Amino acid sequence: MPDQLIERHQFGTTSDTISVLGFGGVIVTNVFPETASRYVSEAVEAGVNYFDVGPFYGNAQELLGPALAPYREDCFLACKTRERTAEGAQAEMEESLRLLKTDHFDLYQLHSLQSVEDDVNAVFAPGGAMETIVRARDEGKIRYIGFSAHTEEAALAAWRGQIDALHERLTSVIEEVSGMEDRTRDASSRKLAALVAEAEDADRGLAQREEAFGTSLAERREELAGLEDAGNAAREAWTPDKKDRRESKTGDDEELTRLRAIVSVLAFEPLPGGVKTEAEAHHVLGIAPGRGPGIGELRARFRMLAAIHHPDSGYGSHERMSQLNAAMDILGRCS
Question: Where is average pLDDT lowest: 48-52, 133-137, 233-237, 290-294?
Fold first, then answer.
């Protein structure tokens, strides 16, 4: 392997070292197999050895398995389950092992724990997912057990002896956070006092200016309200037939372009038949027809949209993320 470009850290107190930058398997969803292989090989050459994937990222496991196979012995592979029962977790884990063409996972995680009652208590109860996961670890199918939690309550409730990926460091983190809270509270108090004093000074200054100009604060507010009403009326009166007059002003064109780009992003709807052409790829990425953006602009647009549409984000969509991946794959082959 060439000189390692990406730094690696020790995984807890184990002998494993993992790259500080990981490979999120969701990026190979719906790409061509050769593209998935290229992504993986480039990541490995750069020093990435941490690969993460899940069964809920479309066909990501199916594509990542063959791509990662040549490097599997030198990589740290993490997978996860959203199942909460032993039976469901067993079926999902076995299918993940099959698709990823491996006989074990280096890390297997209970994914997206949110509710203590519905998630944490369920997985640790008799017949819960932890029965399957602990048994798999004893059988050599899992090396370490972890979890991801979306609430503080779920994270603390899930802190049990079986959770290798978090257990050893959680106590020190809690102590550090407690200390930060104390320091932050003190700093916030000082900052608040300073802001209050600043506000009082500003208030006195305002009163003095009002007296000097002979205008009361109430009158100024009435003037501002009138301006605001006038502005609202002007906006309501604007119609598309006045577009040329507005765009003739310096700077209006850039502002309209920016607003249209925002609307384009927010209005992105998945194509019913998927992304198959360069024009469809441009549509998914919000590129105006007839434009030929460079690869730098395409990648920047992809990163922005991927942050919004990633399945794990609050506004995520697997279908949109799949079409974004497909769009970049098509444009990469066309460039």
Answer: 233-237
Say yes or no: 302 and 227 in one domain. no
Residue 34 shares a structural domain with residue 152: yes
Cα-to-chain-centroid distance, residue 247: 36
Q: Check if the beta carbon of residue 134 is closer than 8 Å to that of residue 92.
A: no
Mean pLDDT of 233-240: 52
| pLDDT score of 328 | 81
Q: Give the tens place of pLDDT for each residue, 117-132.
A: 898 899 999 999 999 9
Do 184 and 303 belong to one domain?
Answer: no
What letter does residue 199 receive in the DSSP assignment?
A: H
Tokens of 240: 């598309």
Residue with tokens 């059988």: 139
| Nearest to 325, CA basis, from 71, 20, 24 | 24
Residue 262 lies in a domain: no
Handedness of CA 187, 191, 192, 197 (dihedral sign): positive
Please check whether residue 2 lies inside any domain of the structure: no
**Could you list the residue range(s) of the whole structural domain that residue 179 is in?**
168-214
Per-residue confidence (pLDDT) for residue 196, from 0 to 100: 53
Q: Where are the alpha helices (DSSP H) in the chain?
A: 33-45, 60-68, 86-99, 121-124, 129-138, 152-157, 164-213, 217-237, 243-247, 252-266, 278-284, 295-309, 318-334
Tokens of 298: 């395409």
- Going by C-alpha positions, the residue among 99, 52, 117, 104 that lies closest to residue 80 is 52
Is 271 within the bounds of a domain? yes
Using a 10 angstrom Cβ sphere, with 0-12 exposed, 13-18 middle and 19 or more buried, the burial of residue 12 is middle
What does the pLDDT look like over 150-200, one tens digit per residue? 888 888 888 754 555 554 444 444 444 445 545 555 555 565 555 555 555
**Measured between alpha carbons, how far is 17 from 9 in angstroms, rounded to an integer?**
5
Sole residue written with tokens 């392997």: 1
Enter the pTM of the model. Answer: 0.55
Residues 234 and 293 in one domain: no
